[in-house]
Design a protein that fits this description.
- The protein is α/β, with parallel strands linked by helices.
- The protein has one domain: TIM Barrel (Alpha-Beta Barrel).
- It has 12 helices and 9 strands.
- The chain has helices at 18-35, 56-66, 84-97, 115-120, 124-129, 131-142, 169-178, 193-203, 227-245, 265-274, 283-297, 311-324; strands at 4-8, 39-42, 71-78, 102-107, 160-166, 182-184, 215-223, 278-281, 301-305.
- Strands 1-2-3-4-5-6-7-9 form an 8-stranded parallel β-barrel, surrounded by 9 helices.
- It starts with a strand and ends in a 20-residue tail after the last helix.
């Protein structure tokens, strides 16, 4: 079976609190662990009322304490917001607390609008330009090197699995050059998916980390007992996408039946494009959608974005998805893929 992982924004529901969002994430991570998901990643976003994962390493420590086997990680840490030294300390500490379970996914975007630079007292543009060098510094610190003459005792020798994240060709090229695993954010930015996967595989240079490319793609997945119920549940994230693209991000709203019917044409077209990488429906529909996506991308792993307003429906979706894919084999390699079995 192709490995499945979970991407969690730690969504704050309308009428809820940050504390409740964190509790829901704990319960979802525990359910994902029971169901057999490989990783549970939290995304760093700032200044958004509906997302509670900004203090990503703190959230990961909370999730690590609540679980025992599932890998925990960042999807991702937006490195321009930080210094490599601090991230090395944080994730080295996480590795000491949860050995063999920590992933560090790194992104180049700031994860918020331009006001964030002032709040962080950072030149985000300059920091983004330094991103490749900062990734290399992190590698050095985990390898025990005292970059700049200053050691990182918590990081030295830490067993942290580093990933490059991206939604464009830049991340694909960097991951290939450094010989690191690469995850593409196709769940919200699918336009460059196929080209990024191609560039990553063609330009990959073997490293001490990997001897061949390892590609993970993100997909929106909501499974329910019927196609109609899944489509209804998905309208909560539909509303979030529309709100974000119109400059009014907020909390995760309750689902609305027929939500897309009342949207203007431009909003419908935006949703069709943003949500084009999705598998939403009953277990058979979800299985078929994921099979098609794996056949298209030949991904080595998938990470699913699964937010629903009802936490119980979110957990049920994870369970139904894993049950539906119980017989789906992992792709063997990019140049000699094995076909997936037909849907039942």
């Amino acid at each position: 079976m192709i490995p499945l992982s979970v991407l969690d924004l730690v969504s704050v529901r309308e009428g809820g609190t940050v504390a409740q969002a964190l509790d829901i994430s704990v319960k979802t991570a525990q359910a994902a662990e029971r169901a057999g998901y490989k990783r549970y990643w939290v995304a760093e976003h700032h200044g958004m009322d509906g997302i509670a994962g900004g203090a990503t390493s703190v959230v990961l420590a909370h999730l690590g304490n609540a679980t025992s086997t599932i890998r925990i990680g960042s999807g991702g840490i937006m490195l321009p917001n930080h210094t490599p030294y601090v991230i090395a300390e944080q994730f080295g500490t996480l590795s000491a607390l949860f050995p063999g379970r920590v992933d560090l996914g790194l992104g180049r975007a700031p994860g918020a609008d331009g006001r964030l630079a002032h709040a962080l007292r950072k030149d985000i543009h300059a920091a983004s330009e330094r991103f490749p060098n900062d990734v290399v510094e992190l590698q050095a610190r985990f390898a025990g090197q005292a970059a700049g003459g200053v050691p990182s005792p918590q990081a030295a020798g830490a067993d942290v699995e580093m990933w490059i994240l991206g939604s464009s060709l830049f991340g694909a090229q960097l991951a290939a050059m450094l010989g690191l695993p690469y995850a593409f954010a196709s769940h919200f930015a699918p336009a460059a998916l196929d080209e990024a996967a191609k560039v990553y595989r063609e330009r990959f240079q073997p490293s001490e980390t990997l001897d061949k490319p390892h590609f993970m793609a993100a997909i929106n997945v909501i499974a329910a007992d019927t196609d109609e119920e899944a489509a209804y549940l998905a309208t909560s994230t539909d509303q979030s996408f529309v709100a974000l693209r119109t400059g009014n991000p907020g909390r995760l709203l309750p689902p609305v039946r027929g939500y897309r019917d009342g949207l203007p044409g431009s909003a419908k077209a935006m949703l069709e494009q943003v949500r084009s990488v999705s598998a939403v429906g009953n277990p058979q529909t979800v299985r078929a959608g994921i099979e098609e996506f794996v056949a298209r991308t030949q991904a080595d792993e998938l990470i699913v974005s699964i937010a629903t307003y009802d936490p119980a429906a979110q957990i049920r979706s994870l369970e139904l998805t894993m049950e539906a894919l119980g017989q789906v084999p992992a792709s063997r390699c990019a140049d000699a893929p094995e076909p997936l079995p037909p849907s039942p």
